[in-house]
Amino acid sequence: MHVVFYANKKYRGGHYFGKVPLYRKPELRKMQRSGTHKSKLNPNWAVYNYDPKPYSHFEYWECPECYWHPKKKTGPRP
């Protein structure tokens, strides 16, 4: 994939979806052990009491061909 960035903060050659956080396994275990509480937005949702701290982030990009032409799901053959 080849992405061109311009001085006015525009780009072409790809689709940007933002930063994705990366978590360590001990941080996720700490989150799971913290317990849950009910959400204020919807009482049916369970929310963890602890937010894990990411150790890094990576940027998620897709090439134009993958973005506009996603792979088709294959079904059973007749």
Major beta-sheet overview:
2 strands, antiparallel
Q: Give start-end ranges of low-pLDDT stretches.
A: none
Topology as H/E string? Answer: EEEHEEEH
Strand content: 25-35%
Overall form: extended
**Total count of strands:** 6
Helix/strand/pairing category: alpha+beta
Mean pLDDT comes to 86
Q: How many angstroms does the end-to-end distance come to?
A: 37 Å
Q: What is the rounded Rg? A: 19 Å
Describe this structure in words.
This protein has 78 residues and is α+β, with helices and mostly antiparallel strands. The protein is extended and about 45 Å long. A hairpin with a 5-residue loop joins strand 1 and strand 2. The model has no long low-confidence stretch (mean pLDDT 86). A two-stranded antiparallel ribbon has the order 1-2. A two-stranded antiparallel sheet has the order 3-6. It has two helices and six strands. It has a domain of 50 residues.
Brief sketch in words of this structure:
This protein is about 20% helix and about 30% strand. The two termini are about 35 Å apart. The protein is built from two helices and six strands.
